[in-house]
Amino acid sequence: MRRHGTSRTTLTWTAVAAAGALALTACGDGGTKEPQGPEGSSAAAPRVELPKLPGEKLEVAAVWTGPEQENFTKVLKEFEKRTGASVTFVPAQDPIVTFLGTKIAGGAPPDVALLPQVGALVSAVQNKWAQPVGPEAAAQLDANYSAGWKKLGAVEGTQYGVYYKAANKSLIWYNAKAFEAAGVKPPKTWKELITAADTLSASGTPAVSVAGADGWTLTDWFENIYLSQAGPEKYDQLAKHQIKWTDDSVKQALTTLGELFGRKDFLAGGTSGALSTEFPKSVTQTFTGGDRPAAAMVFEGDFVAVNIAQTEAKVGEDALVFPFPAVGAKAPVVSGGDVAVALKPSKGAQALLTFLASADAAEIQAREGGFVSPNKAVDPNVYPNAIQRDIAKALIAAGDDFRFDMSDQAPAAFGGTPGAGEWKALQDFLANPSDVAGTQAKLEADAAKAYGN
């Protein structure tokens, strides 16, 4: 599982917060599925024409694992059915740029890769790996995507990518029974979150399940706090390294995050437990154990629903969600996305991009849950419950008013590499939240090296 898998985009839409306040904390239809056509496919006729590719073999690489990979495989099966091609999913490792570089150096690049970072797309273009999208895929983009999403898939004015998947990463999912047992209500501000965490932990259930073994989740914690506290202008500057990580605004955000990370009793398994917990477990342990789970809350995007589905909890009933609380004047909304890019100049690769840019493909995976599409032609009724439906509607309603996740904008060496850069610095911070200055110094040294300034 990776970020959104998302990838990881920062959306400054009031619509999301409004939808969250209205619908996220209590959705009556829970996990109710919408009517579907035969074998779970859309009842509607296909809306995109694809070429016949009998006997053609394609490989698609992504960093997705588990249910996310399984659900995407269903999309690839439909592509095979319509074209006659054979498609193999190739599991990739982080950083995906390094993984692809090895494959390309060995003369065996995948036909298409789904990149979870803007920086990875730029690197693929600079390395002359990526192929511009063809006219058929471009037509789907023009019909189905806002200008902002198309721009994210372009480099220096040329369209290279199709944003197949998006994610709202400013959500805190909670165990309804644990909240009820402790008499806690969903908080709207950071101060209220800390108070709720104190009450929950005092009741015998640690407040938060933190996936500290996966550094990308820690960047998302920081980014939500920073966006709300420092504001969008500072956020943009830090994302481009126009201000240093030693800036006072970073100090304030880390100090705020330390109010949560610094309380061992707030964390499932304490500090050591948080550092050893990978993302999937951070979710599943929050929604097992009835009203005495390992933790009452877990922070991450809409894709958390995929992991909740691996438990007995039902989204909308046992598992509820509230927007990330406001630290400053406005609640933040950080999102992410995965961009599909052709790495071979083949008819099959372009056909797959065309399919991934269509509502046909997105609706297949949307039905499975834990997936949000930026494709405005997707029927919102295909989402499996009201929570995910409202998240998707808010994403589309945002139009072009969004930014991309900060760490995904950074060079992969800083913002997307396990055991290095921002991921490692924030893991060290989780281990010792009192060392704000040391964390800042490490972040700035790594950023300066990666950005080359």
Written description of the protein model:
- The structure is a single chain.
- This protein is α/β, with parallel strands linked by helices and 453 residues long.
- The chain folds into three domains: 48-168 and 335-403, D-Maltodextrin-Binding Protein, domain 2 (3-Layer(aba) Sandwich); 174-323, Periplasmic binding protein-like II (D-Maltodextrin-Binding Protein, domain 2); 411-451, no CATH class.
- It is 45% helix and 12% strand.
- The protein is built from 21 helices and 13 strands.
- Strands 3-2-4-12-7 form a five-stranded mixed beta sheet. The protein has a four-stranded mixed beta sheet with strand order 9-10-8-11. The chain has a two-stranded antiparallel ribbon with strand order 1-13.
- It starts with 9 loop residues before the first strand and ends with a helix.
